[in-house]
Design a protein that fits this description.
It comes from Mucilaginibacter lutimaris. This protein is an alpha+beta fold. It folds into three domains: about 1-45 and about 280-415, no CATH class; about 55-260, no CATH class; about 465-665, no CATH class. A hairpin with a 5-residue loop joins strand 16 (about 505-510) and strand 17 (about 520-530).
Length: about 800
């Protein structure tokens, strides 16, 4: 019997090639979208799953006087870890992480620059489950000046030699010797902590580190089983008040985030330097929801076409019932056909996924693979899911078809079914409502991203190349600047302690207005060379730029307009120009020489913060900014590289265009916009496939009506309008339903941006016209084909 069912199912699929192809392609696209998103979601949720469940990261909320808004940061104070362990029994162990990028290591004649090295407490390898291949994980980094290195680092430094016990040197401010005590497996890609080596933190500890108030490292705690993170959070105000001087504790809050939540649930946490491939879980969930909608649209297509073609199967049902078949047998057969179709769609979906994954990996910067055969559980999941899709898609058509009464069917009196047509209309409206909603969302997401990328930030970022400096290469900055400035390929050279587009540091400053009472406040700081504002074309509202010579008044400060308003908050009648010459800065030892117009030195997700700029070259710089001649990028880069190599022959040359850096700032937004756009495109494609199938069926069923109309003088245009208007009307209704849903959702989404586009009616009208146009193109082929057919052929049987 089952073999017979299979034969009948296959014959019906082959007989109705167009509708079968539409269903298979539609389901395949929906399944492929779901599988790709499922793989992405699974990859994201796998981050740090190989570690213990009771590890948390310490985070702070900083709310200093003078800040535009409080901010969450992933940093913490050096003494916190030991103090928490000694005072709270819930804390079983701790480790702190101080990181260094481009860390130089030398073995014999071989010198390498490791991308990132951590200095950690001895419990690091006891707390985290990173795999140790050689050496003892319990004691690898207990002794000062010991180091555990990864396989990749071992290969770079030692080749095939055994690294254990070998001495390697670091040349920085001082020469430090390290003994290799362990070799570790490379850090997994789904770990937020990516490192090339682990140094013993006690070996580099200095007295200044023990001060409370400085935030410059990460702290992780291992809690006792059953510890409530919420209850531990409540104890932190008392902890801060006990250890910090005066009322300074009031400017901080401490909260703990479980390690497995850090990767996906810290979008609002700044200075989150060690969170590799950080991605907001809200976006991941959004992808999953949209992919599910796309699959539902594909299922709706099957239900629509199956019920629409019910009359074609009516006689089959009547004959089989008249010879003894019962309803559940027929329903089972029709469900079997649907499941067979779904399994065929799965095969095509897997092919589509394999073709799409290289593009997905390039877009997401992940290494996602399709584990069809390597993970039996995954294969079982997608096959089970496919069977479920088949059941969901076919349950209504199966019950509907199996309900036909044999007497009526064999008499040819099967009712056309008003309710059946109403259901199809509802499903079509649901399909296009979802597709139109996604189209509107895509347009607004793309417009917002384009707005952020093209909005004038208040400074020049075109044709600017940035180069990182460390303590060694930074000592040759002035000579590097001098040699570059003499070349016609270079328009200017400057330097700073931070790079625009990155989260700038904050510091405390004092302010005295007309020698009045001193006010202490915090603000964002930018330490620069004296020609920084000129190179970046940062405009001054009033005052003057930094002096080329040292000022007799001490340090010179330039503040932005936001900072100026903050300083004058207690002096409402004072004018902004009165701030020029006022005592300001670290311990009020400098003066304000200029006020810069506000510029967006950070992402447009955030408002402009209060900022002061100080020319303090003797503190050293971390970034060189070089403005190059337009149209001469390749020649300029080659010249800069040659100059760098002549001054720093042992240091690698690394550079980045500032435009590329800002593109990276908006990388996650760009990924979201592209994924939503792709899913919206798939939704409209599948909806149009269904519309094409229904239009084909409608034209087929009305072929004699069309023939009569043509004989009576109806034009091709009027017949096309007749056949098209019904479907166009459904698309218009879909737009009217989708508009308020899209307006509400987009308004909520845009609230996350400090600077955002307006929601205008024009976008909704554009999407409505586009959706109607796409629908017309989809159904016009069948409509025109029916309208130009020879009426003699269609009326021949009458």
């Amino acid at each position: 019997m089952i073999k017979n069912y299979f034969k009948i199912a296959w014959r019906n699929l082959w007989k109705n090639k167009v509708s079968s192809a539409i269903n298979i392609i539609g389901l395949a696209i929906g399944m492929a979208a779901c599988i790709v998103i499922m793989l992405f979601v699974s990859y994201e949720r796998s981050f740090d799953n190989f570690h213990s469940d009771n590890i948390v990261r310490l985070n702070e909320v900083q709310k200093f006087p003078g800040m535009v808004a409080s901010q969450k940061v992933g940093l913490s104070m050096f003494p916190m870890g030991p103090a928490l362990k000694s005072e709270y029994p819930e804390v079983k162990s701790f480790t702190r992480i101080k990181w260094d990028k481009k860390y130089q290591m030398t073995y014999g004649e071989k010198r390498v620059f490791l991308p990132q090295v951590f200095a950690v407490d001895p419990d690091f390898l006891k707390m985290f489950n990173f795999k140790v291949l050689k050496g003892d994980a319990q004691s690898a980094i207990e002794k000062p000046n010991s180091i555990a290195i990864t396989q990749e680092t071992a290969q770079k430094l030692f080749g095939n030699e055994d690294p254990i016990g070998k001495i390697i040197n670091h040349y920085g401010g001082d020469t430090v010797k390290f003994t290799v005590t362990a070799v570790m497996a490379n850090s997994p890609k789904n770990s937020q902590l990516q490192f090339d080596g682990l140094l013993s933190l006690p070996g580099i500890q200095q007295k200044w580190m023990d001060r409370w108030g400085g935030n410059w490292l990460n702290t992780y705690l291992k809690l006792a089983p059953g510890t409530s993170v919420a209850s531990l959070n409540k104890k932190m105000p008392a902890f801060l008040e006990k250890h910090m001087n005066g009322d300074n504790w009031k400017f901080y809050e401490i909260f703990y985030l479980p390690l497995k939540d850090v990767h996906a649930n810290s979008a609002d946490i700044g200075l989150d330097y060690l969170n590799y491939q950080k991605f907001d879980q809200k976006s991941t969930n959004l992808f999953a929801i949209i992919a599910f909608i796309v699959l539902i649209i594909a299922c709706v297509n099957f239900m629509n076409l199956s019920t629409a073609r019910s009359a074609d199967r009516a006689k089959e049902v009547g004959i089989r019932k008249s010879i003894g078949a019962n309803r559940w047998q027929l329903a089972l057969q029709f469900l079997g056909e649907t499941i067979l179709l779904s399994l065929l769609a799965l095969v095509l979906a897997i092919i589509l996924v394999e073709l799409a994954l290289p593009y997905v990996n390039n877009l997401s910067q992940r290494d996602i693979s399709l584990p069809v055969f390597s993970q039996p559980s995954f294969l079982l999941t997608i096959v089970s899911g496919t069977v479920l899709v088949g059941i969901i898609s076919g349950i209504y058509p199966a019950l509907f078809l199996s309900s036909f009464q044999p007497v009526k069917v064999l008499k040819g009196s099967v009712e056309s079914g008003k309710n059946k047509g109403t259901l199809r209309n509802v499903l079509v409206v649901g399909q296009f409502t979802s597709a139109v909603f996604l189209m509107i969302a895509t347009v607004f997401v793309v417009k917002q991203l384009k707005f952020m990328q093209e909005k004038d930030p208040g400074f020049t970022r075109e044709q600017i190349v940035t180069i990182p400096l460390d303590r060694i290469s930074g000592q040759k900055y002035e000579l590097f600047k001098q040699q570059l400035s003499g070349n016609t390929l270079v328009d200017g050279v400057t330097a700073s302690q931070d790079q625009l587009g990155s989260h700038l540091d904050q510091n405390g400053v004092s302010f005295k207005y007309n020698n009045g009472p001193k006010r202490e406040l915090a603000a964002t700081q930018l330490i620069v060379d004296n020609n920084y504002l000129k190179l970046y074309n940062i405009k001054l509202s009033m005052g003057k730029n930094f002096s080329s010579e040292k000022s007799a008044n001490g340090r010179e400060y330039i503040i932005n307009e936001s900072m100026a308003h903050e300083l004058l908050k207690d002096y409402p009648k004072a004018k902004m120009e009165s701030l020029i010459g006022q005592r300001f800065g670290y311990d009020s030892l400098g003066v304000i020489t200029g006020i810069a117009k506000n510029f967006n030195f950070n992402s447009l997700h955030y408002k402009v913060e209060n900022l002061f700029i100080v020319n303090q070259s003797d503190w050293g710089f971390s970034t060189v900014s070089i403005k190059i001649k337009p149209g001469k990028s390749k020649e300029a880069i080659n010249f800069i590289k040659a100059t760098w190599k002549s001054l720093n022959p042992d240091y690698p040359f690394e550079y980045e265009f500032l435009d590329d850096h800002f593109a990276e700032v908006y990388r996650a937004d760009n990924q979201v916009s592209q994924v939503v756009g792709i899913l919206a495109g798939l939704a409209i494609l599948i909806s149009c496939l269904g519309l094409f199938g229904l239009a084909s069926f409608s034209a087929e069923k009305r072929v004699k009506e069309i023939g009569v109309r043509k004989v009576l003088g109806a034009s091709v245009q009027s017949i096309v309008q007749l056949l098209s208007w019904h479907f166009v009307k459904l698309v218009i209704i879909s737009n009217l339903i989708a508009w308020p849903l899209a307006w509400y959702s987009m308004n909520r989404w845009l609230q996350d941006f400090a600077y955002r586009i307006d929601i205008n009616v024009g976008t909704f009208v554009f999407v409505a016209l586009l959706s109607v146009f796409i629908a017309l193109i989809t159904i016009s082929f069948q409509s025109v084909k029916a309208a130009i057919a020879n009426p003699v052929k269609s009326l021949r049987s009458e």
